[in-house]
Amino acid sequence: MRAAGIVARRELAALVGRPQAWILGGTFAVLGGYLFYSEVAFFEVFGGNRLTTGLWPFVFLDLRLVAFFVVPLLTMRLVAEERQLGTFELLCALPVRDGAIVAGKFAAAYTAFLAMVATTLPGPIVLHLLRPFDWGPLVAGYCGLLLLGAVFVACGLAASAASQSQMASAMLTYGVLAFSWYASWNEAALSDTLTPLVRAVSLFDHYAGFAQGVLDSRSVAYFAGVTLFFLFLAMRALGVRAWRGIG
Amino acid sequence: MIAARELTKRFGGRTAISAVSLDVAAGETVGFLGPNGAGKTTTLRILAGIFPPTAGSVRIGDADLGREPLRARASIGYLPERPALYGEMTVTALLRFVVALRGTRDGTTPERAAAAALERTRLGELANRRIHTLSKGMRQRVALAAAIVGDPPVLLLDEPTAGLDPTERTAARSLIRDLAPRRAVLLSSHLLEDVSTLCDRVIVLHRGRVIASDRPEKLATRLVARSPIDVVAHAPSVELATVLARVPGVRRVTAADDEGPAARCRVIAMPGHDVRPAVAAAVVEHGWPLLTLARAEPSLEEIFLDLVERGGEG
User: Fold this and answer.
1) CB burial readout A95-108, b (16+ within 10 A) else e
2) What is the C-alpha separation between B75 and B154, in angstroms, rounded?
């Protein structure tokens, strides 16, 4: 735990010290802010008094898209860059378990994701001042976004741990997440027996409930389980050096 | 302090090292020699705990590296062959990061341990510089500081003086010499001067196998029967070397710097051959005045080349 904390602090300092992280954070804030504004404007014109109840599903589906684009670019360097630069060898020679490396890197990248999500808070707060609403659906939506973000970050970390280059890491993350998204999109392409199964494991079907203001413990467990599964894959990918070597 | 037994490492179908055993005692500095691809770096990486051997075992002090990897690795300072460092960190921050994870032998704080390593490696003036702004030689010194920070009792140094200018190389050797008395040091180097000036013992690795392990002077005595012969004659150096290379029993001839009008060649004979009479006859036969014909003291480089060429036989 202590080693994971040390790794996380170094990783977070490295992220904060780079312009790329600020550009990604800025992109998240600007896109998130613009999409929130556009949804509010849409509801002002077409939604009338349903604004504060019907708005949130659209806002959180937009934020899902922003997270989908930004997170793989945030996580692609986590391990792949260490491999490219050779610093992975330095880290592996220190008395640190692979689990602590994975936990530290996940904690750092997830903290950065939380900071990005925090940039979207002013919109709802200002809206509440202008037109008070029930906080419940908003809180449920943010819970879903944070759980979805944990899966994205863990998936990105696993892809980075399995990749030799940052580009390959980002593409792999996009591929896995996009497949999870599209798999249940067209039910006509799936058989009757396969459809419920695909929907049960689809990230975005589980997220849709949170976006609509529903906090479902099964979905919370699902997101936690998928996150742990990707972290396990990341650990296995680090362990590959036992038979493939390093660098 | 380091005890490796029958280490074998295979990557897929390729065997990188095979049945490598070695011991390094506390207070001993051992040089690891071998041509490129001999398996030196693979062996050092296994000893550093970066990846496990396919077969064999390693003990670092009283810790088995396979069973207690964290305890064993806490005793190891490792300088990689390519000392990549976190460029965005300052030198001090990097040393504190390393020692926070490794711990210290005497329980001193990371701040004090980092300051001590900076002082030892004379990096004090670079303490607050970001690593990406440093020259290659400076980074090598920082990597050396990262290896020694926290005072680990075992040092594994892969090419510790590579990339250093002559002044820095001398300083690095002096530092390693200062560190050696209380530690087990295993260092690999392409610079035979490093090994001959620093090491009590030499291990020669070739094609993944240990082909020799002894004190440099003892390895030299093994060459006595085949020790090089210096030949100085009034002759064109290229022609002299060509003629000597044709003498039966001669393995190799290297032309050295000419001495005025005289040419100097070093002749290495095949095992069991005393080629001196034939060499003298060949020179005289060509009408070249023979000025010197004497056995030379073999250098470490010649010992190394001889061992590698023979693959450890004899």
Assistant:
1) bbebebbbbbbbbb
2) 6
What is the largest distance, in Å, between two alpha-carbon atoms of chain A?
A: 63
First and final CA of chain A: distance in angstroms? Answer: 27
Contact A58, A141 (CB under 8 A): no
ipTM surpasses cut 0.90: no
Report the candidate in B146, B160, B155 with the shortest Cα–Cα distance to residue B186: B155
- pLDDT bracket for residue B298 (50, 70, 90): low
User: Which of B86, B104, B105 to mutate: most A Cβ within 10 Å?
Assistant: B86
- Give the predicted TM-score (pTM) of the model: 0.83
Of B52, B88, B102, the CB nearest to A94: B102
Which of B11, B60, B88, B131 should we substitute to test contact with A (largest number of A Cβ atoms within 10 Å)?
Answer: B88
What token pair was written down for A141? 């939506």
**How many residue pairs bridge chain A and chain B with CB atoms within 8 Å of each other?**
78
Per-residue pLDDT band at B127 (split at 50, 70, 90): very high
Q: CA–CA separation, B132 vs B145, rounded Å?
A: 16
CB of A187 within 8 Å of any CB in chain B?
A: no
Cβ-Cβ contacts under 8 Å, B100 against chain A: 6
Backbone angles phi, psi at A113, to 5 degrees: -65, -40
Question: d(Cα B149, Cα B143) in Å, to the nearest integer?
Answer: 10
Minimal-distance CA residue of chain A relative to B52? A242
Residue A4 distance to chain B (closest CA, Å): 10
Q: Which of residues 213-242 of A touch B (CB under 8 A)?
A: 241-242
Indicate the residue of B86, B100, B101 with minimum beta-carbon distance to A14: B86
Cα distance between residue B271 and residue B227, in whole Å: 10
Judged by DSSP in three states, B52 sits in coil
Q: Are strands B229-233 and B63-64 parallel, antiparallel or unpaired?
A: unpaired
Which alpha helices (DSSP H) does chain A contain, by range?
A: 2-16, 19-42, 51-75, 80-85, 87-92, 98-118, 122-130, 135-162, 166-182, 194-201, 203-211, 217-239, 241-244
Q: Answer yes or no: is pLDDT of B224 > 60.
A: no
